[in-house]
Amino acid sequence: MPLAxxxxxxxxxxxxxxxxxxxxxxxxxxxxxxxxLALEGSTMVVGSNREDGNxxxxxxxxxxxxxxxxxxxRLTASDRSNGDDFGVAVALSGNTIxxxxxxxxxxxxxxxxxxxxxxWADGTQNAKLTxxxxxxxxxxxxxxxxxxxxxxAGDPFHGDQHGGVFVLEKPAGGWANAxxxxxxAPPTDERLKLGSSxxxxxxxxxxxxxxxxxxRGRVLVxEKPAGGWVGPPFGxxxxxxxxxxxxxxxxxxxxxxxxxxxxxxxxxxxARNQGAGFVFEKTAEGWVGPVARLMDQGSAADRFGVSLALxxxxxxxxxxxxxxxxxxxxxxxxxxxxxTNATESAKLSASDGVANDLFGGAVGVWGTSLVVGAPRVxxxxxxxxxxxxxxxxxxxxxxxxxxxxxREEHPPEFLVLANPVSGGIIRCRVAGMDNPEFSLVxxxxxxxxxxxxxxxxxxxxxxxxxxxxxxxxxYVLQASEGQTSLTTRVLLAE
Length: 494
Description:
By secondary structure, the chain is mainly beta. The chain is 5% helix and 47% strand.
């Protein structure tokens, strides 16, 4: 049976990963399962905030030796009640899991779980955190982050929607004895909604304030003081990032992700709600950027960037309203030349996706493991889809020579190659085949053979057996060996 051909993309001379859907996680008890995700090493946390009358839960999965993910725990709050929305935000660092319940009794709460010596198991929190002097309209725990022994929780509705981020460090006596410090923005009458999103990396807190500037949005970066995250509220960020040509209702800062000297923030209202992600980098002179704009090839109202994840040189962004709300997730790799030239390296979708699944509502990435949440799958039951490297046979094409058109000028389902008759050279790298046989099939069904020679680089150089019969047009290019056949449609330029 022919196998669908997946193309290996190149960035700065590097071969980029191909992704295949490996597993679908969907507990029977889930409701809005996949609304929030956190992934680190061989541990995954998935929020399911609509369970049991919106009381909510969070599930812990661990990757087994064979690569599959196994559910090992269901976490809940000891004081849970209907409408808490426990699990709408989750975070993971080492043996610590943090879960937000922003609607707990109208003010919110944050729950901290620590891995027992015997391993993760069903249970309730080790500590519950509440904001000092909470207001009824607060949403403490709307966004959460954890790094080592530091927790940050966003509350965008605090102080009449001015917002704030609450930071605390675990003392020797445990989380229950931690002192909480509020990070706020400089005084203003604006409803900034600071804490709409939050990320932690090292000694740095990154927070989105989507209401700033008429909902243009802003991202504030705070560096840990020498004395630690203690004392009165910190009102002056070390850096305030804005979009140079931001517009009202861009909602810049909707999602943020940070790792080392790289920061990614999304603006889901950008370009008529198509959305975009923006990359900033820390240099000796401070934060610079955006050095890159990340977007999908979709359309208005995709809401690209509704979710973000960053690990190393890989960014994943969700666009949950793409394609009639089926949703999609996009992978971007940092090229060798830097983020400035970054382009989409993969588009992911669910193998069984249907309209209104909201695939991409949450994303997570760690190394070569990638997970995408779709909280509306199965009448709001929800699901999380696990992706990993695709190890099936694949083909990678490149071409040089005259007459090569830009790919974007043609339908995306076609691979545009230079016609070897007009001086172009088609190169093909095949993984999983030792001695493939190549052929081109015309739209009329006529097979045109190709001669294949290796050039010592592991690539096959393809030339037509009968050069004069290859006109410009659409062909099917096939590589076969034994019972395995890989095919893809190609468009040969003049």
